[in-house]
Hints:
This protein has two domains: about 1-150 and about 230-365, Alpha/Beta hydrolase fold, catalytic domain (Rossmann fold, 3-Layer(aba) Sandwich), CATH 3.40.50.1820; about 375-410 and about 445-600, Galactose-binding domain-like (Jelly Rolls). Helices cover about 20% and strands about 30% of the residues. The protein has helices at about 60-65, 95-105, 120-130, 165-175, 175-180, 185-190, 195-200, 215-225, 265-275, 310-315, 315-330, and strands at about 1-10, 15-20, 30-35, 70-75, 110-120, 135-145, 155, 160, 250-260, 280-290, 295-300, 300, 340-345, 355, 360-365, 375-380, 385, 400, 450-455, 460-475, 480-490, 500-510, 530-545, 550-555, 580-585, 590, 595-600. The protein is globular, with a radius of gyration of 24 Å.
Amino acid sequence: MALRTEMVAVRDGTRLATDVHLPDGAGPFPVVFERTPYGRHIVSRSERTAIDPQPLDRAALAAYFMAQGYAVVYQDVRGRWGSEGRFSKYLAEGVDGYDSCAWMTKQPWCDGHICTMGLSYAGHTQAALGSLDPPGLVAQAIDSGGFADAWRNGIRSYGAFELKQVTWAHAQAILSPEAQADPVMKAALEAENLRDWFARMPWKPGHSPLRHHPDYEAYLFEQWRHGAFDDYWKQAGIWEIGFHDRYSRAACVQMSSWFDIYPWSAAENYLGLKRAGKGPQRLILGPWTHGDRSLTAFGDVDFGPKATIDSWAGDWRRYRLRFFDQATKGKPDGEPAVRVFVMGGGSGKRTAAGKLDHGGEWLSLPDWPPPKVDFVAYHCHRDGRLDPATPAADSEPIAYDFDPAHPVPTIGHGLHREPTVPGGLFDQVEGPQFLGCTPPYLPLAARPDVVVFQTSPLAKAMRVVGPIEAELWVSTDGPDTDFTAKLIDVHPASTDYPRGYAVILTDGIMRLRYAEDPSAPRLRRPGEIARIKVVMQPTANLFLPGHRIRLDVSSSNFPKYDVNTNTGEPEGEARRRRVAINTVFVDRGRPSHLRLPVLPP
């Protein structure tokens, strides 16, 4: 087996550092290809299994595929590690990926078949090159990445800015070639305390924790300040929906985790590419945090031994090999189109490791959403009820003060990055480990700016599997604000959890100025009533008898999202704050409700 390093020139002359691992034999070979900003020679933490938690290094992973007759190619994206050029997050990956595929198909060791793989950003690089339909591409294993529409999910979320972009930029600026070559820059970046900086928002260019690396600060503020959905957001690499009709015909696996930010993108890409008549599409959605597909417990919640992908796939390595063999050698692997993990059904007790036993099991489906799902509206009532009954005609609206100086803290769910938010799931109760929480550390539901609607304890089990959204009738007394929604499974009180336990399943946000037309944001007239949809990440959960289904409505979720100052100032440039009086309408003519995809037994 041989390793060579090539500097592959793309169309603008930039040369990309590329490691080529070749198996023994004359070849040519099908190729497994990964493009990454994290170092083509650096171990990926996710390349592990349930049996062996020690991640394989890249050479060992290459050896695994080479033993099965594949050449393996790892490449640093431009401006990272060994590659030339200036790093521009996401936006160069389509063209650079296309040109790299074209280069490979001309090499004597390549048989013309290219399979791509990779997690997170290496999922984004796959979707970017797939959008341009490069030569040779036959299969893609896109894991926790691949923006369907980065304005709606991944960079922004229906207008709000996802602050994991900040923590990523800071961590990767430290590892950038510029910082590695400049010890003063590196030391300055490392000295910044992000928790302190998050308490001092909003920031200004030149006065942020990224000021020591101007290029990284510039791209961050470009994303943050670019609010309207215009041509900026319609580029290859961040808008796969717009490229579905011209996408490669490669077979695709779209995989993500319920406690990540990408299940919406994975589902939308699965559906869009299938509608466009592209190659065979698969969807896998599991109960994990970002890339942690071989674990069972996240934060304070455990989903049981079935939760890992290893429980049915052998492991992710073997699954990819079977998938690539099907695409390159015609070996059918018999996998269903969709596999999702339905959370819930556990004992609700505390495990020996001190985690809540929430449980769950895998479900194989012919499509997504499940063909037999029934979408049921659960209406919000003035007295806090959540049920299918139509609200009263004269029901009074619910108003609350939203103070951007004291936002609702993020407690679990989604892709969070240390040190701002601990990863995993937690009871929806404030605590010292969560940014923005203060004594006496009470439940979030006790806050006056959190409006809670919940069902009575369920008489029988209810299985919810599919896309989730809340349709809300709302108003504010100022020019702009946000509305958030969270879906929660409330465990009843027990010996182990005498106060019960609120498991957050999914959440979403809508910035009001974008409610009607994301491409033409509009500030509001005070008191103007709007009908909005807060789209949450899809989910799958079995609500057991005695549990409650809860919807929390508020106007902030920080630091998952940036906080709306309620002033209407340009995004990323606000200097003022105002307390907003926000209102949710719950009458028969303006029936705010949660739309649940109920799957019969």
